[in-house]
Write a structure and sequence with these properties.
Elements (H helix, E strand, L loop, with lengths): L1 H10 L16 E7 L12 E7 L16 E2 L2 E5 L2 E2 L2 E4 L3 E5 L11 E8 L2 E8 L6 E2 L12 E2 L14 E7 L15 E4 L2 E2 L1 E8 L2 E10 L7 E6 L2 E2 L3 E2 L8 E12 L29 E14 L6 E6 L4 E7 L4 E9 L16 E2 L11 E2 L1 H4 L8 H8 L15 E9 L4 E4 L9 E7 L7 E10 L2 E11 L4
Antiparallel strand pairs: 1-2, 2-7, 3-4, 4-5, 4-8, 6-7, 8-9, 10-12, 11-12, 12-16, 13-14, 13-17, 15-16, 17-18, 17-19, 20-21, 21-28, 21-29, 22-23, 22-30, 23-24, 24-27, 25-26, 30-31
Length: 467
Amino acid sequence: MKHLVIRNLVLIPVITVAISEGISAQPAVTAVLNAASFTATVSPGSWVTIFGKNLADAPLTPPSASLPTSLGGVSVTVGGLSAPLSYISPDQVNAFIPFETAIPTNTVVPLVLISAGGSNTYNIRLTRDAPAIFTLNSAGTGRAVVFTPDLRDVTAIASQDSIVFYATGLGPIDATGRVLDDLQVYLGERLASVQSIAPIPGLPGIYQVRITAPLPATDRLYLRSGGWQSNIVSVPIHAGSNISNVTGTIDGLYPSSDPFFTLPICTSDDPNSPPCSSGQDLSVMLHAGRFSVTFDILPAAGHIDVAAVGEAGSVIISIDPASGKYGATITVPDSRSRFGDFQASVVPLWDYLSCSPLAAVCLSFPGPSVIPLARLSPFWVQATQSLPGPNNIPDIGSGPNGVFQSIGSIAGSHFAIDAQNNGGLSKFGGFLQVPFGPFDKRLSTFKLYVDGKLVASKDLSYTVTHR
């Protein structure tokens, strides 16, 4: 049964780290992460993985079909509420944050782990939604756990296919267990039609999401809910056979491989010192990229997609060889957010330089959600100025990004986006909310797909203000 696969993802440890230093020693929690995405974005109704030392005397899972609040002498409370447990070990505990957990104004609640050796309190920051997709490697990356409605493995997804995957952190529910907040599912960079969101019996907070696939331009799958984006995972898709002689490059504008755009290094690793004052230090992050591509269109070619994608935006160019036309949709910051004004989209906006590493309490920007000009990175400003302005503005409250749309004609059988051809389509970018977590570095990935095939990829690491 496919549900057994997802139960095992929750019950079985995801990462193996150092063993306990001693039986019944004082427990020490070092990180609390979303159990599906392995980010610090967590919410009531989501599963979390607690990492640390001396958390339990030995590995233990509960009896089948049970989720006790005490297991092997270990218990966890979140905001004073008992958390069901699915696994314990000396260095890892898997727990469920109850739906009833209240989110205070500063979003911080205490997570208390109690074991035979004592107790340890670790403050966590909660969001209303923390969407995350379960993956085969149990680490939030790579291939999603995905299958057909009749429980067959998926070999390749095409337009109008019905597929199912597993998710957690979808926000509050009503008395019947129905998810209240709108869930957007993006498959291959296009919005999928959500058929159903069904809770898994015996596993609270885990859902079987069934969608109808759009025409996929890439192999990426991700969710958006309550202003938060999930981990980006992969699914199998069909590649086209409409082009030849394809070459392409992709790179970041922000972050960038250009040494003049390199974000500063974070050097403070002392948890008792003030928070690190270098690197990305806001609760929103700009991800902007640029690309080039050339290829020949084969005779009798069908629909062709060119997709340049990043963590927070994309360029999708849809080419119809029969009519000789193309249409481009480019993600860009809206007219407000590119100048640091997030009043209509991200409220509150947190200043991570103000955060207490141990208490996890942060201050919000005044305004509200307006970043002072002195805090805007010159690289951010230069990157946003190089992007086209939006000509399709989203509704107020829908997010900090807009869209630039363009149509054009192709001449002959050769298509190019470079310094001499269609250069206005080569840059894209957007803002993404990021949590205050335990990591000192993050990764921004840019990819270029043509006709369903990956042509180029670029990983760029950057430092962040962290706990």
